[in-house]
Fold:
Amino acid sequence: MSQSPASRDRILSGMRPTGRLHLGHYHGVLRNWVDLQASHDCFFFVADWHALTTAYENREVISQSVWDMVVDWLATGVNPNLATLFIQSRVMEHAELHLLLSMIAPLGWLERVPTYKDQIAELRDRDLATYGFLGYPVLQSADILIYGASGVPVGEDQVSHVELTRELARRFNHLFGREPGFEDKAESAISKMGKKQARLYRSLRRRYQEAGDTDALGEGRALLESQQNLTIADRARLVGYLDGGGRNVLSEPEALLTHSPRMPGLDGRKMSKSYGNTLSLRESDADIDRKIRTMPTDPARVRRIDPGEPEKCPVFDLHKVYADDATRAWVENGCRSAGIGCLDCKKPLIEAMQAEVAPIRERAAALEADPGHVQQIISDGCDRARGVARETMTEVRAAIGLDYRQR
Ligand code: TRP
Ligand code: SF4
Structure:
């Protein structure tokens, strides 16, 4: 596939609709999306089929969460004029590419993906011994490859899925990325290099392909670079023939690790729905007040006059996210000297969190009052996504040799 600058800069990420979004999603993911959309061609989507792989017995949560999630994205500043927002299951081409990739996805690769065994162990109440669950990262690969995304913002746990995507793309290109007669054309190009150089090329190719010698790969590329009598097409063929890659139909993405600090929850552990320690993006002022006031503090501060240690207090973890330097210093000194009480300490935190959540909550309410508008945004996004996905599928089918369907 030819790479226009726009597609080289394409970013894609998906989120499973598994419940209400909370401040952990905001600090860990959405703020990053909002930053990225300004400078990249971003595609963000609701991974509802992925949610189905684990929640096929409890689908209500998916249908309830899909639109809530889109509203939360928009309310936090994800902008449909800058990014393409869509729902996975409304772009059927993902399913077709998933199917085709599944033909060449070695079982061993899938069984070795670390999330596979981890999730089965973690979600012991669900039967995940399904074909669909094993194929989870193949579907994710299809999501990524169908848009030719070069960057995939993900958390640590998803890096292995992006790595699998790269391997599947490479395997696809290796198996199908050859023009008809590629080998013959490559061989005849070799003979144009002259006997001595041709022999050198062949031996470097063998050293790389049979022994994995990457120095030989570099030398081979340099050799081709120095050949004056090769056409551009022949040189491109010989580069592909050297590394065994063939023509690139699907391009390999990079994982973009989100470097946001870990968002602490109400109990000091990472904020996560499964710990029940979250604050939602639509939390009322009163609930924020109540939840922070009742947060545990350093147990050493039994009485107001007992000094404490902020590093042992989950409230201070949240201050690290919200407080400016002056407030932070005030907390540290006041806590260690018992100059302030815990409720004093919590007050600026409560105010900062209320100030952050209020505009999100208000924008969400306005969006909920106008569901037609939100549906239109998604409908437009699905159309745009489908257009790109269809182009890729035309290339993919042609590469596999399935284009007889289109005649
Ligand atoms: N598996 C991702 C998660 O659980 C969601 C997802 C599905 C995704 N398809 C994707 C993320 C493609 C990035 C790219 O968070
Ligand atoms: Fe925690 Fe603040 Fe109380 Fe210290 S003063 S224990 S940091 S809540």
Residues 182-243 form one domain. Confidence is low (pLDDT under 50) at residues 1-8.
